[in-house]
Amino acid sequence: MSDWLDDINWNSDGLIPAIAQDYQSGRILMLAWMNREALTLTVAEQRAIYWSRSRGKLWRKGEDSGHVQKLHELRLDCDADVIIMQVEQLGGIACHTGRQSCFYKVLREGAWVAVDPVLKDPQAIYHAGHTHE
User: Which residue numbers delimit the Phosphoribosyl-AMP cyclohydrolase domain (predicted)?
Assistant: First the structure.
């Protein structure tokens, strides 16, 4: 049964934005994109699997870093064009910069200021040459 996939308003590229939110704290961890295959696999494997627009391929979150996002709940917004996932972020790090969340900059007096600590040096997370999952 793939009827639920047909209820989604995919964009012109066949994608939908997917927000990952910590299932306990409610903190927004990141936003990425999914196509039909990525969303189908996310549900099947109960872990976040995205579509990498820059690399043009599936991206299993945590495949390089070990920072897997275990799916707890999947929701679709009222316009059926945004997915939000309640996830358990393994390792407590979602961002390739080594921070808990990709949303770590705050606008202060006209400038973006990094306010969250780096929990783990990205060089220690990724193989040489990898800068982003």
Answer: 30-104
